Amino acid sequence: MSTTTLIVGSGFVGRAVAARLAAGGGTPVLASRTPPPRDTAPWVRLDATDAAACARAVDEVRPDRLVLVHGPSDVTWCEADPGRALALHSAAARHLTAAARGRRTVLISTDNVFDGSRPDNDETTPTAPANAYGRAKLAAERIVGAAPDATVLRVSLVYGWEPADCAKWLNFFAACAHRLRAGERVEAPRDQWTTPVAVEDVAAVTAAVLEPGAPGLLHLGGPDRVSRAEWAEAIADGLGVPRSRVTRVPRAAGRYASRPTHTCLTSTLLDEVLGRHGLRVRGVAEGVRDLLEAAP
């Protein structure tokens, strides 16, 4: 019998999770305020801040389990309106865990729950958000983490392809690759580090922790710690364009000022989960190579 999973959030990560579950024979259903840009899975309209709407969606879909990838996830937007960001994340987490009524639930969270002072945040590192997005996600974590059968999956910077004609690219890889392919220059911080993880690997691990026996808190970061400038240069190398098109800038000089210095995740638990399910997480060089070979 096919397992039905309600995925709240039909953006970049939510669609990848849906594709992974469908490929494994499951029945994913996406839920969001607006429909996804392309047909990846069945979809229902949902305002996750509306308690009655959340209850109706669960009653309609009758999922066996839930994945919460709800937003807003734009760090700059959250910094501009921190009160609303906190309210939106908290309300959605509260309403959906209540509607789930004990069903298996996974919340996709973020490395921004840490203050950026350490390059090695594992599951035992105390949280200390340095920005509004991190504070909003941490509030959602505490709500979902108190549910009877839930896992909080903190994910480092996620990357993958997005269409070239998107109004706004949601991940660093796609923005760099499209601009470099178009002959444009790219500015990238030399002093903001991350542990990037490919969206397909995020989807695979999410599918794994939906199964019984997963820890209540798990970190998922890629095996490589790189600055955004180093990463942009690796993308340039993969595309065969000069590294000189990448300009190294200080983090404080642009849109990355509200990001922590280190958005890096390590884990004391991930290897066991990966081994149990026969999975691996790719490093930056392999991930970039695989994406560029499959370039749209």
UniProtKB/TrEMBL annotation:
Alphabetical list of Pfam families matching this protein: RmlD_sub_bind
Domain of life the protein comes from: Bacteria
Record domain RmlD-like substrate binding: where: 6-274
Protein name: RmlD-like substrate binding domain-containing protein
Organism for this UniProt entry: Streptomyces malaysiense
Organism lineage: Bacteria, Bacillati, Actinomycetota, Actinomycetes, Kitasatosporales
